[in-house]
Each structure stands twice: as C-alpha cells, then as structure tokens.
Amino acid sequence: MSSAQSPIHHLKCWPEWFRFIRNGEKTAELRLDDRHFQVGDTLVLRGWDPTTEVYTGHTEEVRYVTHVLRDHPGLTPGYVMLSLVKEPAWR
Asked: pTM for this structure?
C-alpha cells in the first residue's frame, strides 16, 4: 500500500447491523460502490434509524477494509462486498 492516507468513508448503518459490527460478529458489508472502495480504506459507521430517518448517535470505526469483491457472479452490478476488520493484527 502507498504511504498516502487511505480514504475515510462516513456511512449510515441500520441498528440491526450496527450491533453485529460493533461486537465483531459481522465482518463483511454489502454496499453500493458509489465511493470506489479500496483495500485499506477506513469506514466510520454511523447508526441510522430508517423508520425515523435520524442518526442514533452511535458510531463505530472499522479501521481497515481487507478485501473488496466486485463484478462477481451473483453480486448485483454496481455493488461490492467489503471484508472488514476493526483493528488489523499487523498494525
């Protein structure tokens, strides 16, 4: 990876998924690839309540995208599956 700072993406995250990411049970995220996600990117997930359309005030930083799956059979065009770790072991 280059010495340049990897992008930080601030994203909405619905409550039912947020808690699984927070406790480490969910390590993959399906997203619209509108930000051209790359390995090394950081995600800052912000709790979002879709019924009230307001942020919950909860945030969780996922420090490292370890893999980006694009253009794969079964994956809707324009979407990516991101593999995540909250803190990589090698840092």
From this structure: 0.83
Other CB atoms within 10 Å distance of the CB of residue 5: 8
Q: How many CB atoms lie within 10 A of CB 41?
A: 19
Q: Report the distance separating Cα 21 and Cα 42, nearest Å.
A: 14
Mean pLDDT of successive 10-residue segments in the chain (91 residues)?
Answer: 74 92 91 95 94 95 92 95 79 50
Distance between CA atoms of residues 24 and 45, nearest Å: 13
How far is 32 from 27, CA to CA, in rounded Å?
A: 17
